[in-house]
């Protein structure tokens, strides 16, 4: 960091008979590599309402009582990095777990890249990293790259701006409602052999997938016009967050 860079912290907590939790957001501003970056951690617990239980059943989560009342716990870690240079892509990632008393545990998360200027070698290296990681966690009976292609499709479908008819970036991985234990193999949908282990591996893969791109692009010179383009693309990023995102990186 340089002398202009600084961190700020937002700590929150709430207590209540039906819902309680706490979390912290740490934000870096004015860095030489990252103009703005944030990491968010949260943990909440409570009892399912009938409406939330019904929604969960509709997404294929077995073991949930449709009348509600079961205790739940949810934890999440998310981050988003915006480069100071137009040549450093924006990086977003998260992992999360949701458990229901006597009902099961489900995992979600992913990572995706949003460059302002497309460098094909960077994009290929990024996707190759995640394809290899998925291969390490999928069943040997599945076709090669089955898990990667499934979660890449989810990412492409999710990070899309319908009004613009364009994708927010070049994608990556996105997975949700992946169950652990006895429900780990669902018909028609590839799943990791161990959902929790896969979720941990995704988290541990964030920096190795992104840091080489930062190292290669951070010192490239740029013009005022390229900076203006970066700000325009960042506006599209914000537009997606405000209109469509459910992943919680709206802090930036």
Short description:
By secondary structure, the chain is α+β, with helices and mostly antiparallel strands. Helix content is 33%, strand content 33%.
Give an overview of the whole structure.
The protein has one domain: Coproporphyrinogen III oxidase, aerobic (oxygen-dependent coproporphyrinogen oxidase, 3-Layer(aba) Sandwich). The chain is built from five helices and nine strands; from the N terminus they run E-E-E-H-E-E-E-H-H-E-E-E-H-H. Strand 5 and strand 6 form a beta hairpin. The C terminus is likely disordered. The longest helix has 23 residues. It is an alpha+beta fold. Strands 1-2-3-4-5-6-9 form a seven-stranded antiparallel beta sheet. Strands 7-8 form a two-stranded antiparallel ribbon. Helix 2 crosses helix 3 and helix 2 runs antiparallel to helix 4. The chain is 33% helix and 33% strand.
């Amino acid at each position: 960091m340089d002398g202009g860079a600084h961190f700020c912290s937002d700590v929150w907590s709430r207590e209540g008979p039906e819902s309680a939790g706490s979390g912290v957001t740490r934000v870096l501003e004015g860095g030489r590599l990252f103009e703005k970056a944030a990491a968010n951690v949260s943990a909440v617990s409570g009892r399912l309402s009938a409406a939330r239980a019904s929604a969960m059943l509709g997404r294929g989560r077995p073991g949930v009582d449709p009348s509600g009342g079961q205790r739940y716990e949810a934890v999440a870690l998310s981050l988003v990095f915006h480069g100071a240079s137009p040549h450093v892509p924006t990086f977003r990632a998260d992992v999360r777990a949701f458990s229901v008393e006597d009902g099961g545990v489900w995992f979600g998360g992913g990572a995706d890249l949003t460059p302002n200027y497309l460098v094909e070698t960077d994009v290929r290296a990024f996707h190759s990293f995640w394809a290899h990681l998925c291969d390490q966690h999928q069943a040997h009976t599945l076709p090669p790259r089955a898990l990667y292609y499934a979660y890449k499709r989810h990412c492409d479908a999710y990070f899309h701006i319908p009004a613009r008819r364009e994708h927010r970036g070049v994608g990556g991985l996105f997975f949700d409602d992946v169950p652990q234990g006895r429900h780990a193999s669902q018909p028609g949908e590839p799943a990791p052999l161990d959902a929790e282990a896969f979720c941990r591996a995704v988290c541990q893969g964030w920096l190795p997938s992104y840091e080489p791109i930062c190292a290669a692009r951070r010192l490239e010179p740029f013009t005022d016009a390229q900076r203006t383009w970066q700000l325009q693309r960042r506006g599209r990023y914000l537009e997606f967050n405000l209109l469509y995102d459910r992943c919680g990186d709206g802090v930036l």
